[in-house]
Each structure stands twice: as structure tokens, then as C-alpha cells.
Amino acid sequence: MSPRPYAVDDRTLVDRVVPTWNDGVPAGAATMVGGGLGRHAAVGRSRWVTPLRVLLALALCVTALSWFGKAACLQTSSTTTSAGTETRLTNDNQRQFTNLCYSDVLALYQAEKLDRGNTFPYKTFWHENSDPGAKAGEGEQVKRYMEYPVLTGLYMYGAAKLAQWWAAAHDNWGIPAPYVTVGYFDIAALGLLAFWLITIWATALTARARIWSAWIAALSPLVLVHAFTNFDAIATGFVALALLSWSRRKPWLAGVFIGFGTAVTLYPLVLLLVLLLLCWRAGTVREFTRTALGAVGAWVAVNLPIVIFYPSGWLEYFRYNSDRGADPDSVYRILSDSIGFTWNNDLLDAVSLLGAVVLAIALAVVVLRAPTRPRVAQLAFLAVAGFLLINKAWSPQHSLWLVPLAVLAIPHTRLLFAWMAIDALVWIPRMTLFLDPERRWLPEEWFTVAVVVRGLMVVALCVVVVWQIWHPEDDLVRTGAGSVASGPNGCGAGSVASGPNDYGAGSGVRFDDPAGGVLDGATDRMGKWSRRRARQVVEAWPVPVDPIAPENSLSGPSVE
Q1: 336, 365, 339, 363: which is closest to 351 by C-alpha?
Q2: Angle at 377 between CA 220 and CA 459, to 5 degrees
Q3: How far is it, in rounded angstroms, from Cα 374 to Cα 3?
Q4: Residue 316 has pLDDT above 90, yes or no
Q5: Closest CA to 426 of 389, 398, 401
Q6: 380 has which bridge partners?
Q7: Which helix (H) or strand (E) holds 206?
Q8: pLDDT given at position 487
Q9: Model confidence over 81-119: pLDDT tens digits?
Q10: CB-based contacts of 161: which residues, under 8 Å, 6+ apart?
Q11: What is the pLDDT of residue 482?
């Protein structure tokens, strides 16, 4: 009996998945605030404390801590000379490594000659020794340009110009300003923060009824360590927007974001392979064609002006990646150290290319032979994880690429956090490699062990994904377990299906793919290629409507 009259408007969301009903981690954490969501709670009634706002607030807290983690490298010192007062970053005694605050964002301001003032990336060049180990005055001097793709280079240039204008305003009008290098880092970090918030926003909306699953990405230890280590948040933002656009059945817009992401770094390109394979099986190649055309158009629009006016500068990124050796984090360096083999660059490139071909074939086999068509996020995670495993460059911050994809592909909190924590801890022995021998606190073998364990964790995640592709009844995303309609534990009164995990007797798969877009609920057109069990009933993922404001539902544009 209610002590107050019932509300006239009793609308509530019935399809949202409640974390405290099917995930032990948030269920345990909820005990500190009075417990999880009750069986009779009205979901979706709050106008202000919405899931998206909570997720963005969590992401802001973690990225703020990440910035403080880099702050030790932003301290400056001043010395007075005959020429005046000179300010510089205080990196004495290898402070950036001993304090674990090293950031490429900060180092590249001078390394890419952005501190020169009136310089434009891809046009400006400098000379350096072709042999980094040669003594001064020895070896061949060669031209070098900005070594990053176009959008990344322009982003760095824009941040540098804003920092220099800020410093000029201080000199001319007395406006408070930090040391110009620190100003550059802060401006670049502010933009990276915006891209990471876009990543969380788009990932949450792509998850649809499982919107709360994005909290794993918002609180990821990898974000805490690497949000501002390099410019990877730009790429994750474009990839997340591409997946969101695809899930909203806007293939051309998804292609545009893939093209922009590829102009930041190459890994978003694997999404085209993922969508091609899935559309091939579903017989929706026309939609993929629109995506591919959008990606090519966006990439060309960004790159073509630089190609025309500064072709040598544009080619530098490809030259640099072709000439570079294996990163210490890569499987090739581990093999080299283990068996005493030195990789020739041509051989290394050939093996990497062969690995990419094998990866593409393996993905095709998974798509065409699986009894149920994989979800977009599942195959995207496998593709990006495989790309990292076979690539000769796996810098620690590259693991950020996997975070939003893993959240959408693998609905298992403990497993994800175990991998993220191990991956984030690789940063500690990684920094040890740059220290002088007398300052090292860990032997090099610790780094090798950490990288091997990280690689095994990523492989384990891939095994889980493949298992759930072949056994969709174990995939919590497909079963919809823990939704409001089904009650706590997924099998309460009013559940969608009669059996545990929302699988009734002979009911088969209840839902298909929340990020599938045109693939969601689509009938396979290439069933003869797949080794099929009994035909399963697959339905499109339900799109919940906000009971308070239908225009803010997950089926359309949202302002949250």
C-alpha cells in the first residue's frame, strides 16, 4: 500500500539492462549506496540524473586524474642568463620516466619542430642523421618531415598555434599564460578529452539497452594511464561515431567517420573489412558500398590537398613506418630477444603483411562458418586485436583502441578489468627501458614478462569472443539477460522467455545485434557457406523509448 497516491503517468523503460541484476561487480559496489535497483523500480523517469550524464561524469573524473598523472612533467624552471630569463621544462635526472609522466604529446612539440613558430606540417622539413647511433658530423644527413597522418599533424599544428598565440597575448597584453610548451600540452589535452567524451557518448548509445556497460570504458585503468600519452583518443572517437552511425542505419555517415579516423591512424580501416564480411554474409553489400564510398571520399578530402602541395611531407608517415623496426612491445621483438634473431626491415614488413593476410582469411572463416552471424562489435574487436598482435608497432597507448570495442563485444566486467589493469601496468616496466642503468628499478625481463602476459590476455579475450559467436546462448548481449522486463537475474515475472538467461525451450536466440544497423535481424543470404545447427529464431534488438521524452530515446538523435 503506497503512503501517497500513485502517479498518473506510470510509463517506464522495460528494455534497459540493469547492471546490478546480472553483474556481480556493480552489484557488490551498489551495497555501499543502499543496494541495486529494486524489482518494482521505475526506470527512465529521471530528467537530470540520466545514464549518459553519469557516464560522462565518471569519464571526466578519470581523465582529470590522468591529466594529474602527466602534471609532473609540466613543471618548469627558470634560469637567468646574459640574454635574459630562460624557461624550460624540468626533466632533470630523467624525471619524465622515473615519475611515469612521459607523454608523446609533450615531447612532439619540439621533436616535430612545432616550436619554430611560422611552420606548417608536411611543408617544413629539417635534416637529421640517417643513422641515429652515429656521432656528430658523421653519417648522411637526410630530410625529415612530420611523421604523423594528416589529421593528427593538423591537430598538433592547431594546438601549437593556439599555445603560441596565448603566449603572444601574455607578452603583448599581460594575459596570464603558462610556459608555451605547457600551454600546448594543455590545449591538446583539452581536445583529447573532448574526443574521449565523444567515445564514451557514442559507445553508450551504440550499446542501446546495455547503455550502462559503457561505465567500464569510462573507468578503465588504460584511460587513467594513457588518455594523454598520445593522440589515440581522436581515433577512438571517430571509430565510436562510425559504429554509432552504422547502428542507426546511416552507412554513408559511418563511412565518413571511418575515413576521418583513417586520416588519424590506420587502424579504423579494418572496420571496412569487418563490415564487408558481415554484409557479404547477410547479402547487404549495397549498404557496405555506401560506407566504403563515404570512407574513401572523407579520406581523400582530408589528404588530397596535402598530397598535391606537399607530396614529400605526406609520404613521410609511410616512409617512417616502413623503415622503423619492431617496437619493444611487439611479438617480433620478443621473438628476437628470445632466439637471438635480428629482423631485417624488409623481412619484418613481409611477415607483417603475411600476418595481415592470414588475419583477414581467419576473420572470413569466422564470419562464413559460424552458426550465427557475429555481432559487429565482436568481429571489430577480433580484427583490431589481431591487427595489434601481428603489427610490428604496439605502443602501450594503442591498447586504448580496444577499450570501447571490448565493452561492446564482451559483457564480462571482471575479465575486462583484469585485462585493462594488466595492460595499464605494462607502462611501469616500459618506462624502465629508457632509464640509465643506475636508475633502473626493474630488470628488462620484467617488461618482457608483462608484454607476454598482456598478449595472452588479449588472446584470451579473443577466445571468449569466438566461443560466444559459436555459442550465442552464452552471449549476454544476445540473450538480453538482466533487462527490466525480465526482472532480476533475467528470469523474473514477465520475462521474455521461459528459461534461464531468457532462453525458453527451443526458443533460440532472442535478440541479434544492437550495433548491427542493417544487419540487425537480417536473414543470412549465404547460409550454404556456414556450418549450421538447427535454425535459430533471431529478432532485431528492441529499441527502448524514453517514457519522459520520446525524442531522447535511443532510436533517434539524443541530446544527453
Answers
A1: 336
A2: 65
A3: 50
A4: yes
A5: 398
A6: none
A7: helix 180-206
A8: 59
A9: 766 678 888 888 899 999 999 999 999 999 999 988 778
A10: none
A11: 67
Q: Which long-range contacts (CB under 8 A, 24 or more apart) does 286-291 make?
A: 287/251, 287/517, 287/518, 288/251, 290/251, 290/252, 290/255, 291/246, 291/251, 291/252, 291/254, 291/255, 291/258
Cell numbers for 98: 622515473
Averaged pLDDT of the chain:
85
Here the cell at position 2 is: 503506497
pLDDT digits (tens, 9 = 90+) for 382-439: 999 999 999 998 999 999 999 999 999 999 999 999 999 999 999 999 999 999 988 8
Residues in the chain: 560
DSSP structure class, residue 483: B
- Specify whether the CB–CB gap between 391 and 324 falls below 8 A: no
In angstroms, what CA-CA distances link 215 with 49, 159, 278, 318? 15, 29, 28, 36
Distance between CA 514 and CA 377 in Å, rounded?
9
pLDDT band, residue 557 (cuts 50/70/90): very low
Task: Return the percentage of the chain with pLDDT > 90, whole number.
Answer: 58
Strand, coil or helix: 442 = coil
From the CB of residue 161, how many other CB atoms can be counted at a distance below 10 Å?
A: 17
b/e sequence 502-521, b meaning 16+ C-beta within 10 Å: bbeeeebbbbbbbbbbbbbe
Q: Supply angle C-alpha 393, 396, 400, rounded to 5.
A: 105
Phi, psi of 167 (to 5 degrees): -65, -40
DSSP string, 151-197: HHHHHHHHHHHHHHHHHHHHHHH------HHHHHHHHHHHHHHHHHH
| Residue 59 φ then ψ, to 5° | -65, -40
Cell for 202?
Answer: 557514442
